[in-house]
Write a structure and sequence with these properties.
single chain; formyl-coa transferase, domain 3; 14% strand; elongated
Amino acid sequence: MLDVTQVMAGPYCAMLLCDMGARVIKIEPPSGDSTRAMAGASGTDSAAFNAVNRGKLGIVLDLQRTEGRAVLRRLAGTADVLIENYRPGVMTRLGLDFATLSRHNPRLVYASISGYGQTGPAAGKGGFDLVAQGVSGIMSVTGEPDRPPVKAGVPLTDLGAGLFALSAILAAIHWRTSSGRGQHIDTSLLDAGVALSVWEATEFFAGQDPQRLGSAHRMSAPYQAFRCADGFITIGAANDRTFSKLAMVLGHAEWTSDRRFASDASRVQHRVALADQIEAATLGSTCADWLQKLEAAGIPCGPINTYAEVFADPQVAARELAVEVEHPTLGRLRALGTPIKMSATPLDPRRRAPMLGEHTEEVLRAAGYGEEELRSLRSTGAIR
C-alpha cells in the first residue's frame, strides 16, 4: 500500500491500515512530512509524526522530478491501495491520478482525501481542520450560548475524513474480490464535518436552526456537564426511567410529576430550567460523592478528566490505550494504542514511525531496482 499523504487525515487512515497488517510504504518529499518539524522535533523526527505514521516503511521520492514520478508509477503498478491528499488536480498534472495509474493496474484502489472534495466550485481550495470545522457548521454549534464559536478540541474533520476513507477502502477491497477491479474513492474534510453533524442536520431539516448548547444534547435532557462543589461531572439521564432515578438520587422526586419534565421532549424544551435545578442540587456535594451515588443507582455519569487523569485511569490502562515505543532519536515515547481489538488478527500499535528515507533502498530493491538504477536515481535527486 502506498501512502502519498502528509499531516493528519491521510497518514491516520494509512496508519490504521498498517495496524491491521497492511505493508504501508510512506512516500515523502525530500523535506519530509511537515509534521516532522512540529513542536518537540529532534532533527527530522517528532512525536507528532510518530503519532500517525507508526509501523510504515519510509521512502523519499521527489515527485517534482520525472525520475521520481516514474518510480511511483512503477510501485503503483503492483500496489493494492494508494492514498493521496494533494489538492485536486495536482496528481493529474503529475500523471499520477487514478485514471492514469489504473490503466496499468486495474485492481488499484485509489483514495483521494482533500479539503473540499474532487468536485464542486470549491474543489481547488486547500483544506485545514479548523477551516473545515467552520465551513461544515461544527463551530457554529460548539461552545456556550452567547459566546464566540470555538472548534472541537480534537481535529474532528481530519480524523473523520481519515476514518471515512478507511471504511471506503475496505469496502472497495471487498468489492474487488468479486469484480477484479479497483476504484477511485473521493472524500474530504468538509464531507466529514457535514456527515458527522447527524443531530444538528436533523434539527435543521426539521425547521430549527441549531444553536450552541455548551455540553448539552440537542435531542435529550438532562444530558450534559453539571457543576459540583469541587468541579464538574457529566450526567446522561436521557430517558424517563433514568430521569426518575436521577430525581430520587438528587432528592427531588417531585420533578417526575412536573409537567415541564414529564417527558424527554418536554425536558428538552425546558432544558435550562431543569439544568439550573439539577445544578442547585449537585453543588451541595463533591464530584466523587455524586459519582458514587449516581453509579450506585445505575445512572450514566462520569468525571471530566484531564489527560493526566485519562492516562492514569485503570480502565484506559486495561484497554492498552497508551503504549511505549522505542525510537532511535526520540528515545522511549509514550504513544496512543489502538482502539480496535480483534481476536484472530490482533493489531500492533507498538511499532515506531520510519526515519526520513529509512527504507528507500529496501523498498526499491524489493520492487526490482538494481544497484545501477539506484545510483542513477540518487544522482538525479529523485530518491534519498
